[in-house]
Amino acid sequence: MFPTSSMYDDMDEELAKSTYLGVPATPRETVSSSASSSRLSTVVFANCPKAHACGVQLGTTIAFLGLFAIAQAYLWDRSAPFFAATSLLLCSYEFLWLAHHSTRALTASLDPDQSPNGTDSCGQALADRFFGGRLILVSLLAGVMGGSTYYGCTWYGFNVLNSSKGVMYPRTIKALGTFTGGGSGLLSVYCPSWSAAVTLICFGAFFVCVSIDAIAYQASVLSHKFVMDNGELYAQGGSLIIALMLFSPAPPIVSLILICHHLVGFMYIFGCCSAISGYIEHLHQTFAVNLLSGVLYATIGASFAQYLWHRCLEKSCGSSRCNLPLVRCLGADSPRLFEILASCLGGILGMFFTTLHVDIVGSTSASVVYTGGAIFVANLGRLFLAVLKQVAGDAPPRGIFGVHGGLLDGLQLFLPLILAFSPYYRVYLGNPDPAGNGTRPN
């Protein structure tokens, strides 16, 4: 039997159904709209640790910006140092625990006398002995003692400084000292060791000293008998931290690792948080707030771009030869080139959006170009936290967000970025006004 023309027509029709543009078509099943939306939500909200970290970073920065804007508008227009002090104390507390766990992981085989339980706070033994195990009472008592001590020191310090009575400068410093002292005392009993607790208290004391000059410029009071040099203060702070670690009863190798960890934390966390107060050192208050807001918007744009990259684009561009890991020691956790470039693009858009609404010092092109370079540097500067986390392993989290991370995770891009912006306003504003009136130079 020979095939007829109708049979050829049927074969052509079947071939047309099974192919499209010469490519074999994949059989498709009928899927309801609810199932399609379920698949889409599964893809978008699938478990992605990097996207989750970027989401925490994005949410924390938005919350920081919102609280800062509310405080500036409705509470007090000189609240920047208090936000900086809060960030310093909470980030330092989380960093000291991270350094503690990474030190234990590195020295487990070198220190046979190491306690098997590395999660107890240093004040827990004191609470068990005198307060019936109620650690909150110990922390409140330490906070009251710390705030009172800092207030007494600032009150006595103004007898040395030639400051006029009734101006905002002494009251601001006393309030900042009391706030920082109370916060550092409150958190110190929750630190992993007494040396870490003393380090946290020293961080707060150094921050108050650094803020004195900054707030003095803002309040137009420059009648000091002396002006503290920040570089000298950093050197003295680092020397004190080394001395504190040397008095620890731990073996020498443990003390050496602790010295390295605490010095890095002093340079990274203390340096970045003190830069927030430094933004009001040479600037008029309005321009300082605008620049700080621009950095926050740039951080939000960069974090959102990184989030979209990990959710939507990473798989499609992950095999590209140009998408190189930048830090080999981190392995799969290393950020890749395209991820940082996407972050720079998002930060540039965030800064450009800010320039449309507020007056940022310098030209728009200069601020936008500088933002791209600063975000690239900030992405590299925050990688040592990833190294510490990788060394610490599966240690119990001590962040304020629990298993979702902490403030240090949320501000890990903002802190180095605000430090990277410090040369920007110094270049555009030059030397401080010797008259101390806090205005921008012509």
TrEMBL record:
Transmembrane domains' residue ranges: 58-76, 82-99, 135-158, 194-212, 233-250, 256-280, 287-309, 340-361, 368-388, 400-421
Main location: membrane
GO biological process, one term: CDP-diacylglycerol biosynthetic process
Cellular localisation: Cell membrane
Membrane topology: Multi-pass membrane protein
Entry GO terms, CC: plasma membrane
Name of this chain's protein: Phosphatidate cytidylyltransferase
Organism per entry: Saprolegnia parasitica (strain CBS 223.65)
